[in-house]
Each structure stands twice: as C-alpha cells, then as structure tokens.
Amino acid sequence: MSTVTMDNAAKTAAREESPARRAFRRLLKRKGAVVGLVVVAAFLLLAVLADVVAPYDPTEADWSALRGEPTLEHPFGGDELGRDVLSRVIHGARASLFAGVISVFLALLIGIPVGLLSGYAGGLVDGVIMRFTDAMLAVPFLILAIALAAFLGPSLTNAMIAIGISAAPIFIRLTRAQVQAVKVEDYIEAAQAVGNPPFRIAFRHILPNIWPALMVQATLTIASAIIAEASLSFLGLGQQPPAPSWGSMLNSAKDFLTQAPWMAIYPGLSIFVVVLSFNLLGDGLRDALDPRHKG
Q1: What single-letter DSSP state applies at residue 203?
Q2: pTM exceeds cut of 0.85
Q3: 225 close to 239: Cβ distance less than 8 angstroms
Q4: What are phi and psi for residue 285, nearest 5 degrees?
C-alpha cells in the first residue's frame, strides 16, 4: 500500500472517530490527568470495597493499640480509642467521596435547569434568577455550606444537601453563559424555524453542546465538595461519630498532634491526594474536551 493511500486511510479514520473516543485519546496523552484518573479510580474502588479491604471494623476499639504507633498489625497506627486508623481511613473514603459526588450531582440537578431557563428565556426571568444567584455567590461557598448545614442539623445527608445547594449557583451561572453563547448558532435558529418547542431545543439541541464544560466544572467542584464535607465533619456538622470521616478523624486528632501525629497525617494526606487528583483530572478533561485542540 502506498504512503499516500495510508495517509488517506489515517485521515478517514480520524474523521470517523467518535467524539468520546477522541476525547479519551487526548486525555491519555496528559500524564497528570492519567495519574489523577488512576488515583481517583483507586480511591473509588477502596470506598466501594471498604467492607472487604479494611482489615478491621472501623468502630472496634483495641485497647492494646491505644494511640499505638504504626506496626505490621496496624500499619497506620491506632487512634485515641485504639481503633485501626487504616480501616477508618478506608471507610472514611466512602463518606468523603460519596458526599462529594452526590452533592455535586444535586448541584447539577438544580443548576442546569435553572441556568437553561435563565439563558434561553432572557429578559425579566433572567434578571430575577441572576440577581438571586449573585446574592448566593456573594457569600463564600464554605460559609454558606456551614450555615445551611447548621440550619438543617448535623448529619452526612444534611451536609450533602448543604454543599449541593451552595454549589448550585456555580452551575447556574456557567450554564447560563454557555446557553447564551450557543443559542445564537445557526443550528439553533434552524431548530426554531421548523417549529421545535423551547423545551425540546434547550434539552435536545443546547444541553448536549454545553455538556463538556459542565463535566469539567463538575469534576473540579467535586474536589471542593470533598474539602467542604471534611470541614463540616471537622466542625461536627457532617458524618457523626463513631462512623469514620476524614474530617471527623482530623477533629479527633487535633488533641494528639504531639503524642500520635499519625492520627492526623493519614486522613489529611488522603484529603490532599484525592483533591489534587480530581483537580488534575479536571484540567485534563478541560484540554481533552476542548474542540479547538488538534491532538
């Protein structure tokens, strides 16, 4: 086969490549994003299989391991009640990752429809929605989450609701901006010309074209939500003892930083690694989903 024929075949294959496959291929070219994806997948697997992977019951006390140093039997040491820190870190991953994903999913459920309505309808509707959104954005994300969690009451479920509501304005504003950029395109005007109702245009023609930007923002917001959940648990507004959470573990460890520093090191390091990995993955997704990228 000639070189020209091979080049033509390669160009044809590139044109026939699906957008999802092309985005995944671009993502794999970014080492930081791949590392982030692998770490996130590993922690998600640990969270799902926590009951199988964890060597001990995270709430079972062992008085022989009371603030015990790391050993072969307890690789991460013991906490103030003799509970295995490794088992609590593994089970804490379930609470933190679950809270991060669910709260962002809730924020998407609120933000996307409201943002679509605001961006597509415009006028008075847009003005009212955006003034309310601006008022919520004027309050720092974590402060708003703490206030809502305190109002709803201390529990992991209420913490997720508080974080989701606090993150919703981010998606409302982003969705509105994306809708305003897309709704002037020729294919949207063509859909309007043939008589498609606004609801169908918004969800069938506009939403699929703004989804990549929302996906990137959701990945980055999960990292913020994990930090928010840890903060709420640290303050006693999230996961309640004796159930483990990285934030509540740090709260317990703060009184033993000199006697048993491992109680704070491992949950703190877990938060750092997971948040960094989600940020790396989000940055990689931003590049991989950018239609202007030629890779």
Answers
A1: I
A2: yes
A3: no
A4: -65, -40
